[in-house]
Amino acid sequence: MQPRLNYWKAAPEILKPVVALNEAVEQSGLEKNLLHLIKLRASQINGCSFCVDMHSREARRDGESEQRLYLVAAWRESPLFTDRERAAFEWTEAVTKLSNGPVEDALFAHAREHFSEEELVKLTVAVSMINIWNRLCVSFRTIHPVEAIAA
């Protein structure tokens, strides 16, 4: 697979506010590990290898276990995630897959059991943010770093 274009080089001015919003998400006050997990889940759904690679590496760097990272794709079947993380995964999936239909009232009510109104807005912006990055990377075939394999 070859990259289609370098979107950073092609349109740097439009990416400045995207980077600023990304920084706002990072500074939002939501737990860092939660942000890593929802970014990883949305990236898995969107098939973004660059972001799956980046966010799993960042999560490991910040202390997340490999086992939990492996099981993000199967979070419903794993006891390793908290109720808050599960609510965040449900919300992330619904917001990422809007083409499946609206975010249901029951899902909103469940998310509100675990997130304040302010936190839910921040979570939704975080999910939207990773979806922007996924769409840029997938559309332009951004390639994740590849480590040399020792012979």
Itemize the secondary structure elements and their pairings.
Blueprint: H1 7-10, H2 12-26, H3 32-46, H4 49-61, H5 66-71, H6 83-96, H7 105-114, H8 117-139
Helix pairs in contact: 2-8, 3-4, 3-6, 3-8, 6-7, 6-8
Describe what this molecule looks like in 3D.
The protein is mainly alpha-helical. Helices cover 66% and strands 0% of the residues. It contains eight helices and no strands. The two termini are 23 Å apart.
CA(first)-CA(last) distance: 23 Å
Mean pLDDT: 96
According to DSSP, the number of beta strands is: 0
Low-confidence stretches: none
Order of helices and strands: HHHHHHHH
Judged by helices, strands and strand pairing, the structural class is: mainly alpha
**So how many helices?**
8
The proportion of strand residues reads: under 5%
The geometry reads as globular
| Range of helix content | 55-70%
Q: Note the main sheet.
A: none
Determine Rg (CA atoms, Å): 16 Å
Q: What labels describe this entry?
A:
8 helices, globular, mainly alpha, 151 residues, single chain
Quick summary of this structure?
The chain is mainly alpha-helical and 151 residues long.
